[in-house]
């Protein structure tokens, strides 16, 4: 869309126009299509249906074809060829536009070096030959590409291969003056086509054009001395210069974002050009035969070209409009939100209790503040800027929450909660290393080099944080301790040794997974010597049959391994206990076997009941013992995450299936490391509630960034995997909603998976609670709830732990987003701002929204399971209250 806008309006598209590539809206600026229609020209269009949405109702005849399906190489092209030649021969047109898409789609699907590309180029070559054979003498043929493509067939960046495209002009009549020898063709900006075609067709140049006419097209009537050619060229350039100057004057009065010095200089240059043009070619022109005419005319042509080029460069440098006050307000709101997440995570144990609930107060005050800002704007400015109203509401509500928290901490209004400094002081020792890692991560976002190498930076930080966990435990004497503490009844030395070996083994597993994941990274255009991963190429691009079969079976094996590992874990912890074949076959077994089986079952049940009666204390209350519920929360969440992971893997190229398997292994390593570290640091200690340390939370968040890159994604627009929009669909979509959701799910699959499965960080230490610890605590009572049943027996602690975990996870992502926002704001005049920092900000912001949404869904799913379990217990014993 940006390219089409550029070569129809003559203006420079801005960075934010990239959003219109997915939902194109009508171009409201003055443009060639509008001017052609206004001046009675019949414009016929056929091809890419994007034109229909950009110029609705502007065509004399429109034949659009669906363009979004990049797997379809022929529908658009064949549709054009069906109507192109009859339309040309019919004569009911003045301008005929045919936008072919086969070459573009072939590049996206197969790349530029595939045999299918050669076939498409051959077809286009024949089309050009056939069109030339049907041209009239008064017709101009313009063959052009709106962009190029990289070696992988992508485009959207700023590399030479992406921005360069061919331009071929032909007419049966003489178009250019004869040239001496073969000359290197000049580079022509696409905006230069706008004034050129406008003057050739006899219509006004679009108002916002800053392009420059192609001079050679106005010199075809050149005489031997070349004087008339220069006169025609000067007239075209002068019309162009007057139009650009008029636009510059009007725009500078409205926008006021052009540098005053540059604006004054350009106005002075135009005044001189106007005087010189009037002297040479005005009402009283200089005689063409005078000796000074030719040199002055040549100098005038050079000055006009220089003026037009300078205007374009001035606009290019200045058309990045920034609003410092709004930027500062956005940073303030985002920073306050991060502080709010931190405060809520530390106050999770008291939020929602009857003695302290500041949420409703904050909401009410925020609503009042937002409404006040809106009323103030309406009174003084007669309009409401919703952005300022929302900003005021957010800041006031957050300040109200902070003030209430400060009052609570100072006055000790909640006796059940520790003061905030004490709660923070307890975790400072655990927070030191994760805080340093997070600060390094944020600092890296201020460097274009580190943003370009973000995948390796995230991998290194994740590795460093993983190594720090056993080092800290060893420093505290909790790892493979040789001096047993006789004061503690548990854990035993065997338990310490087992957990220590588990921790070190999982660390090694994590390191291997991180190293292997580097094999799946893509390459940015700034990384000249980088070779993209061969796993990113779809099977259709692999020419070697054996290699293609190997890739196929490896991908299938990876998906099978994913499903097998998830199923094995579920069965290991007592899930998926559907009737086995032996039990199911009892219905058709002989009666004699059943008569032998039933007494044995009865005897076992009688002995079990006798043991329970002996152990009862006789309080008269019904006793309930439930078995197989040790993973009642983690099992359904893991099952949902496993199925979701398989679905997301289907949206990626086949080679990424192995990368998803590495993600599963890497996530398991982080979970088991967290479990082992928790067991070694505070075995079985839940007196202060359930909580997840900062280190595994930060590792989980860094894994999302690391896996984003390990699936071939990059924070750049050319790296978006558009093929995912048509996975499972053979035809085009009726709307852009479904393909947009599929592309978003493909791009942010890492954030989706790790956000949904985030509660596993809370459940895993309980699931992996060592048997030795449970036996050691057996003296306290065999009826003590074990594993995840501890959460059900402590609903307040469970809710607080979920809230704290969610806030910590969102805080880590929010701090990264804040750093990216600050980097884009501080470096807004940096050379790489639009190439590196702005795309990174957009991907980080959208990733944060996706993460927030799926964290909410994941935690809502856990709460739904908790409600179902509680209801099941109540139905089991009606008078048993939780």
TrEMBL record:
One GO cellular component term noted in the UniProt record for this chain: endoplasmic reticulum membrane
Family: Belongs to the PIGG/PIGN/PIGO family. PIGO subfamily.
The keyword Transmembrane helix is annotated on this UniProt entry: yes
SUPFAM superfamilies per the UniProt record, alphabetical: Alkaline phosphatase-like (SSF53649)
UniProt name for this protein: PIGO transferase
Record's keyword terms, sorted: Endoplasmic reticulum, Glycoprotein, GPI-anchor biosynthesis, Membrane, Transferase, Transmembrane, Transmembrane helix
Pfam families on file: Phosphodiest
Membrane topology reported for the UniProt record: Multi-pass membrane protein
Annotated TM spans: 331-352, 359-380, 386-406, 501-518, 550-570, 631-651, 657-677, 689-708, 748-767, 809-827, 847-873
GO biological process entries: GPI anchor biosynthetic process
InterPro entries membership: Alkaline_phosphatase_core_sf, Phosphodiest/P_Trfase, PIG-O_N, PIGO/GPI13
Single GO MF descriptor: mannose-ethanolamine phosphotransferase activity
Record has Transmembrane as a keyword: yes
Source organism: Atractosteus spatula
């Amino acid at each position: 869309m940006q390219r089409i806008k550029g070569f129809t309006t003559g203006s420079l598209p801005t960075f934010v126009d990239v959003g219109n590539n997915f939902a194109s809206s009508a171009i409201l600026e003055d443009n060639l299509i509008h001017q052609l229609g206004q001046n009675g020209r019949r414009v016929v269009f056929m091809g890419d249906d994007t034109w229909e949405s950009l110029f609705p109702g502007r065509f004399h005849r429109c034949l659009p074809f669906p363009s979004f399906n990049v797997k379809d190489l022929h529908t658009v092209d064949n549709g054009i060829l069906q109507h192109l030649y009859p339309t040309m021969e019919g004569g009911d047109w003045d301008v005929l536009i045919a936008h072919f898409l086969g070459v573009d789609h072939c590049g996206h699907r197969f790349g530029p070096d595939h045999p299918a590309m050669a076939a498409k180029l051959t077809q286009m070559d024949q089309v050009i030959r056939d069109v030339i054979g049907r041209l009239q003498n008064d017709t101009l043929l313009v063959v052009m590409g709106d962009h190029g493509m990289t070696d992988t067939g992508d485009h959207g960046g700023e590399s030479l291969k992406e921005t360069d495209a061919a331009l071929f002009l032909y007419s049966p009549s003489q178009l250019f003056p004869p040239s001496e020898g073969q000359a290197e063709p000049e580079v022509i900006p696409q905006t230069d086509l706008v004034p050129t075609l406008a003057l050739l067709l006899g219509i006004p140049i679009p108002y916002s054009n800053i392009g420059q006419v192609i001079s050679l097209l106005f010199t075809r009537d050149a005489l031997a001395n070349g004087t008339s050619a220069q006169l025609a060229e000067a007239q075209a350039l002068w019309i162009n210069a007057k139009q650009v100057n008029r636009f510059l004057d009007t725009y500078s009065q409205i926008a006021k974002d052009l540098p005053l010095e540059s604006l004054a200089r350009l106005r002075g240059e135009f005044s001189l050009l106007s005087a010189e043009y009037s002297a040479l070619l005005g009402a009283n022109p200089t005689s063409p035969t005078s000796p000074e005419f030719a040199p002055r005319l040549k100098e005038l042509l050079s000055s006009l070209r220089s003026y037009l080029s300078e205007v374009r460069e001035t606009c290019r440098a200045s058309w990045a409009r920034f609003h410092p006050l709004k930027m500062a307000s956005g940073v303030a709101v985002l920073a306050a939100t991060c502080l709010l997440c931190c405060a809520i995570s530390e106050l999770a144990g008291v939020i929602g209790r009857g003695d302290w609930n500041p949420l409703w107060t904050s909401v009410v005050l925020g609503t009042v503040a937002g409404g006040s800002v809106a009323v103030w704007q309406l009174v003084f400015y007669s309009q409401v800027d919703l952005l300022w109203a929302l900003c005021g509401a957010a800041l006031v509500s957050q300040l109200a929450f902070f003030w209430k928290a400060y009052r609570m901490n100072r006055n000790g209004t909640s006796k059940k909660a520790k003061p905030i400094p004490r709660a923070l002081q307890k975790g400072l020792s655990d927070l030191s290393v994760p805080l340093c890692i997070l600060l390094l991560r944020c600092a890296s976002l201020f460097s274009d080099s580190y943003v370009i190498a973000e995948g390796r930076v995230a991998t290194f930080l994740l590795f460093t944080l993983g190594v720090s966990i056993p080092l800290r435990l060893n420093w505290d004497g909790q790892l493979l301790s040789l001096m047993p503490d006789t004061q503690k009844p548990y854990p035993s030395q065997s338990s310490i040794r087992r957990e220590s070996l588990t921790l070190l083994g999982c660390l090694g597993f994590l390191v291997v997974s991180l190293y292997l994941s580097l094999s799946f990274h893509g390459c940015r255009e700034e990384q000249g010597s980088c070779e993209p991963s061969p796993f990113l190429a779809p099977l259709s691009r692999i020419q070697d049959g054996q290699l293609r079969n190997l890739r196929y079976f490896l991908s299938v094996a990876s998906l099978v391994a994913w499903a097998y590992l998830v199923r094995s874990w579920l069965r290991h912890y007592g899930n998926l206990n559907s009737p086995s074949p032996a039990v199911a076959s009892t219905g058709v077994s002989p009666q004699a076997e059943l008569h032998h089986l039933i007494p044995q079952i009865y005897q076992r049940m009688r002995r079990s009941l006798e043991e329970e009666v002996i152990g009862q204390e006789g309080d008269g209350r019904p006793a309930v013992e439930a078995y197989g519920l040790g993973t009642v929360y983690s099992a359904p969440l893991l099952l949902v995450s496993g199925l979701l992971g398989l679905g997301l893997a289907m949206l990626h190229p086949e080679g990424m299936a192995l990368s998803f398997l590495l993600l599963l292994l890497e996530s398991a390593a982080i979970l088991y490391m967290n479990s082992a570290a928790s067991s070694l640091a505070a075995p079985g200690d839940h007196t202060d509630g359930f909580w997840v340390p900062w280190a595994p939370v930060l590792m989980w968040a860094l894994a999302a960034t690391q896996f984003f890159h390990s699936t071939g994604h990059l924070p750049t627009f050319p790296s978006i995997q558009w093929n995912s929009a048509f996975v499972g669909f053979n035809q085009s979509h009726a709307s852009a909603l479904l393909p947009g959701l599929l592309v978003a799910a493909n791009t942010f699959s890492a954030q989706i998976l790790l956000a949904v499965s985030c509660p596993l960080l809370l459940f895993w230490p309980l699931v992996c609670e060592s048997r030795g610890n449970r036996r050691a605590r057996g003296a306290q009572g065999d009826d003590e709830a074990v594993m995840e049943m501890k959460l059900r027996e402590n609903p307040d602690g469970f809710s607080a732990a979920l809230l704290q975990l969610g806030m910590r996870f969102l805080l880590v992502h929010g701090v990264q987003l804040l750093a990216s926002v600050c980097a884009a704001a501080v470096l807004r005049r940096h050379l790489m701002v639009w190439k590196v920092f702005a795309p990174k900000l957009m991907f980080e912001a959208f990733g944060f929204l996706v993460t927030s949404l799926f964290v909410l869904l994941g935690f809502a799913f856990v709460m739904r399971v908790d409600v179902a379990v509680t209801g099941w217990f109540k139905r089991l014993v009606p008078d048993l209250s939780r």
